[in-house]
């Protein structure tokens, strides 16, 4: 199938004014929604809870009762002023000892700096920060990668980088005095960390094979770039969307493989034609949280390609204006959709559209339902004749400075100086002339570190940061997931891909609910002692028959996981115990 090429009216998109039901989405759980999708809501409930003051959007006084601590911190001091008024320059000059003497300054480094993509690792790396970038569609360059390597190298053993489950880089070990210079360096290579944490729009995800896949539906890169440009106002800060009730995820689907995981995003653009026009059906409300996980549901809306940014803008404004700001576990956008009903929420979106119109969804879905998801690791032909891309396995997404320099070199020497990050924490080198493939495969980095053909259980292994760095994580994940998987591989032979995901806490950054087998960190008891453990999830699916997994067994000590995983693989995934396999041989 030929992919779609769409001309964008970028300027108008960025300056506009104030039944993809096959994904088996379930209705919202907390409101009995009538067949029409309408819920009766009092008129006063539809009054916007925020208002613009001096260019910033703030919560009105009448809606401040019962708000959560994060909202109080935003009211006490506008987080974006650390960027727009260069507050970061001032706080970077203050010692941590002095910062600790002031609650306002402590909240700056622990809460407000997240609007600049900086996360203080107070619990495990006091005084050091993780910096999360914006990398739309996961596309980066050799120059950008080298710059990030130069940043983390100076921090020695404290410095490293991770590929995230949103096609993004996170770098670690950053200290506060260095931040102003790092931000300038990011800007010089075309990167930003702005609005990548807390109550902001996260990195726009797209097809990692965009523009090179012979079977892609549409190249998602222009859409992801436009969305990112809108959200950050081209790195200047878009103050109209920096005070959301909670974080907000968006993706654009470009392949039948659904590499982008639409069912777990707040907004997913699903390619569809209508009356000869190319555009997208919309899914809304997908999210994970400790108290509830929900799959995205159809908004019964279709937009032409030129309206990708305007509809994103209006959905964000509806959420910003009407979302509740009390219990943080009940402030994601799906809770608002529950309260208003799908039709009620849709009506609020329509009210905010430039022409006050939003077409109903199209029946002309372009994503094929019966599609076997393809592997992208290894050598694969591109749509460009004579070229291939090579998918590299990055074990649980962790890289060091030297690794990043080598990846940058390989991308330049063999490809076009470009790297693609994936939501499975791997990296793709595109645009390699076929005559150079053998030489690339013989490079030491591919032989010794980042294999294009890893063992079958390793190739789909995903792990969050874990408690090595993250203060939210209950258990260590990255090293443990590798060690346990290695042990399991010695015990069973597996012939089909099995996706195993690890997350250190119920926030589920490791997305265990979409895994075939998932492990969520917890503390449990064994022989009278408290030990690190995991709740085991089973049955998550991705693709057109997506389904969130269910808890299979709770509170298993980590040291007891291997036999349980072996049993699951044998009983559910056709694995054969190696002792039996050897006997049969």
UniProtKB/TrEMBL annotation:
Pathway membership: Nitrogen metabolism; nitrate reduction (assimilation)
Needed cofactors: [4Fe-4S] cluster; siroheme
Catalytic activity: 6 oxidized [2Fe-2S]-[ferredoxin] + NH4(+) + 2 H2O = nitrite + 6 reduced [2Fe-2S]-[ferredoxin] + 8 H(+)
Keyword Ribonucleoprotein applies: no
GO molecular function, one term: metal ion binding
EC number in record: 1.7.7.1
Cited InterPro entries: NIR_SIR_4Fe-4S, NiRdtase/SiRdtase_haem-b_fer, Nit/Sulf_reduc_fer-like_dom_sf, NO2/SO3_Rdtase_4Fe4S_dom, NO2/SO3_Rdtase_4Fe4S_sf, NO2/SO3_Rdtase_FeS/sirohaem_BS
Sorted UniProt keywords: 4Fe-4S, Heme, Iron, Iron-sulfur, Metal-binding, Nitrate assimilation, Oxidoreductase
Domain of life: Eukaryota
Region forming the signal peptide: none
Keyword Heme (UniProt): yes
Family: Belongs to the nitrite and sulfite reductase 4Fe-4S domain family.
Protein known as: Ferredoxin--nitrite reductase, chloroplastic
């Amino acid at each position: 199938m030929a992919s779609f090429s769409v001309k964008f009216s970028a300027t108008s998109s960025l300056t506009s004014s104030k039944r993809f039901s096959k994904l088996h989405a379930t209705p919202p759980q907390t409101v009995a929604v009538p067949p029409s999708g309408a819920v009766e809501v009092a008129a006063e409930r539809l009054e916007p809870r925020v208002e613009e003051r001096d260019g910033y959007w703030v919560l009105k006084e009448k809606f401040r009762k019962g708000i959560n601590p994060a909202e109080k911190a935003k009211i006490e001091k506008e987080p974006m002023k650390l960027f727009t008024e260069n507050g970061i320059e001032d706080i970077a000059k203050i010692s941590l000892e002095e910062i600790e003497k002031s609650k306002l300054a402590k909240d700056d480094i622990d809460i407000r700096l997240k609007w600049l993509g900086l996360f203080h690792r107070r619990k495990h790396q006091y005084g050091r920060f993780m910096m999360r970038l914006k990398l739309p569609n996961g596309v980066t360059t050799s120059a950008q990668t080298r710059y990030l390597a130069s940043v983390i190298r100076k921090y020695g053993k404290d410095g490293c980088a991770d590929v995230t489950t949103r096609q993004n880089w996170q770098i670690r070990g950053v200290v506060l005095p260095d931040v102003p210079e790092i931000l300038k360096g990011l800007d010089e290579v075309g990167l930003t960390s702005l609005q990548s944490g807390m109550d902001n729009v996260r990195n726009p995800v797209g097809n990692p094979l965009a523009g090179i896949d012979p079977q892609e539906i549409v190249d998602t890169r222009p859409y992801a770039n436009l969305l990112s440009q809108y959200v950050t106002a081209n790195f200047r800060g878009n103050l109209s969307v920096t005070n959301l009730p909670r974080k907000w995820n968006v993706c654009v689907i470009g392949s039948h493989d659904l590499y982008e995981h639409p069912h777990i995003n707040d907004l997913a653009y699903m390619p569809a034609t209508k009356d000869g026009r190319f555009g997208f059906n919309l899914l809304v409300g997908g999210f994970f949280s400790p108290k509830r996980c929900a799959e995205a549901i159809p908004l019964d809306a279709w937009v032409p390609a030129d309206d990708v940014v305007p509809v994103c803008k209006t959905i964000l404004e509806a959420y910003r204006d009407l979302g509740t700001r009390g219990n943080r576990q009940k402030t994601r956008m799906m809770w608002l959709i529950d309260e208003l009903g799908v039709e009620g929420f849709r009506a609020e979106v329509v009210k905010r559209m430039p022409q006050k119109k939003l077409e109903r969804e199209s029946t002309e879905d372009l994503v094929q339902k019966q599609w076997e998801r393809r592997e992208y690791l290894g050598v694969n032909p591109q749509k460009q004749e004579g070229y291939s891309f090579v998918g590299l396995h990055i074990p649980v997404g962790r890289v060091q400075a030297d690794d990043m320099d080598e990846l940058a070199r390989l991308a330049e020497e063999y490809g076009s100086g470009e790297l693609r990050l994936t939501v499975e924490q791997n990296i793709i080198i595109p645009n390699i002339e076929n005559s150079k493939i053998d030489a690339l495969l013989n490079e030491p980095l591919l032989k010794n570190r980042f294999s294009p053909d890893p063992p079958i259980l390793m190739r789909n292994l995903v792990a969050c940061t874990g408690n090595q760095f993250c203060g939210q994580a209950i258990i260590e994940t990255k090293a443990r997931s590798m060690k346990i998987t290695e042990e399991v591989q010695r015990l069973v032979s597996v012939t089909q891909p099995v996706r195993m995901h690890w997350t250190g806490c119920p926030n589920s950054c490791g997305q265990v609910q979409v895994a075939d087998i998932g492990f969520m960190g917890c503390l449990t008891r064994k022989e009278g002692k408290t030990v690190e453990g995991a709740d085991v999830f089973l049955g998550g699916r991705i693709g057109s028959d997506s389904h969130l997994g269910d808890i299979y067994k709770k509170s298993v000590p980590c040291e007891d996981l291997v036999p349980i995983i072996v049993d699951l693989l044998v009983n559910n995934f056709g694995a054969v115990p190696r002792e039996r396999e050897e006997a049969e041989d």
